[in-house]
Amino acid sequence: MFPGSEAALMEEGLSSLPTVPADDPLEQLVRRIRAGETDAFELLLRRTEARILALAWRILGDRHLAEDAAQETYLRVFRSLTSFRLGEPFEAWMLRIAVNVCYDLARKRGPRSLPPETLDVLEGDAASMGAEETVLFHQRRALVQRALSSLPHAERAALVLRDLEGLSTEEAARILGVRPVTIRSQVSSARAKIRVFCSRLLNTPHGGRP
Amino acid sequence: MTLHVLDQLPLWVEGDLGTSEQAAVEGHLAGCPACRVAAEQLKTSQVWLREALASPFNASDQDRLRRKVLDQIRAEAAVKPSRRLAARGGLLTACAASLLIATLVWRQGGRHEDSPTAVGPPPAPPVAARPTLEPPPVGHGLTTPSTRLQTRATPIQESASPPTGGPTRIEFQTTDPTIRIIWLAQSGPLPDTHQTSEEKS
Predict the structure, then answer these.
(1) CB contact (8 A) between residue A163 and residue B13
(2) What value of ipTM does the predicted structure carry?
(3) Which residues in chain B are contacts of A49 at CB distance < 8 A?
């Protein structure tokens, strides 16, 4: 069922991922898929799709591109599932593929401006707020989006994995194929830049209230 | 002079410093209003970051993605086995053809053993030809030389058994209908070889 492995895709990390317990539910699914149960892939999707979509959107900043990235990620996962080493955390392996897909798509897209979907997203979230609060909410999110779009890809990916995906510095380093000290440096730089952007609003009379 | 901790704040804010460094920064913040303001701004900007990057995807988005992925994967899974079988069949045919051609070439070459231009090991003496009746060692890869010796040892029987007519015609039809491989194999001894044998006798 599976074509030739894309082992090169997995060689970007500097070290292997830490071992996980044998009863990792995702690994059980992987074993079933490898045994030919294509339907088990649907369960894998259900368990991981929300995270992959969110990760792609946070890295790319574009909703449609993120959907394309998520789709491509799962296709690559399926095609290269034979190269996954059992015993390693499957989700981290998949996140690494997703990050690589996002990098590929970001390279194809080239430099980008403020993500166009920012205001669309705000409409639903701000529906229950008062007028003044809604305006502030819009401003905050637009500001953060603008700050994120100004970050280099590597800093943005490190920030997303560390602060939004909740991974440790070491886990983020393994996924991005860099040393932990690099992640610390990138995350520190990214946080400082976002603070500078946010300070514009924080220094106004209405600012400072998250 | 007070050493500010502004450079350490981005790591301090998420607890990325070591225990002693973390404590040192907090100690400094207690007595430095400027750094304290910066620290508060960092805390707030981190809250805004998480607020701004809450996932915008809902269940229907996920359903749509799942449908697309599964459709494509099922299509791939359905196509690939047949492709693999076709490729395997083609490979087997090619191997069989190669083996057949190699056998025919070898048989032709075996009849040139007396020719000075023949390539291969020197002809074995009659005594050396006897061991060819023993089975070759399994998995040693000497099957072809052994068989070659056997043929050399019984040239008369070999020349009597194959048909003495014209050349054998073998045709292979490739997957490209416009390309056909035709192999003509002469099973009888070549004229010059025959002459050399007569001259020797």
Answers:
(1) no
(2) 0.77
(3) 62, 65-66
DSSP state of B130: G
pLDDT tens per residue across span B76-119: 877 765 555 555 666 677 778 788 888 877 777 655 554 444 44
pLDDT at A117: 46
Report pLDDT for B84.
55
Does residue A32 contact residue A40 with C-beta atoms inside 8 Å?
yes
The residues that bridge with A86 in the sheet, in sequence order, are: A88
Q: Give the list of residues 6+ apart from residue A93 with CB closer than 8 angstroms, or none.
A: A10, A17, A84
Q: Give the model confidence (pLDDT) of B159-176 as tens digits.
A: 444 455 566 777 766 665
φ and ψ at residue B180, rounded to 5 degrees: -135, 135
For residue A71, list chain B residues with Cβ-Cβ distance below 8 A.
65, 68-69, 72
The arithmetic mean of pLDDT across residues A173-193, rounded, is: 95
Mutate to test the interface with B, among A41, A198, A206 (most CBs of B within 10 A): A198
Residues 51-80 of B with CB under 8 A from A: 51-57, 61-62, 64-66, 68-70, 72-74, 76-77, 80
Closest to B122 in 3D by CA, of B105, B145, B102 = B145
Q: Identify the burial level of A66 via C-beta atoms within 10 angstroms of its C-beta, where 0-12 means exposed, 13-18 middle and 19 or more buried.
A: buried
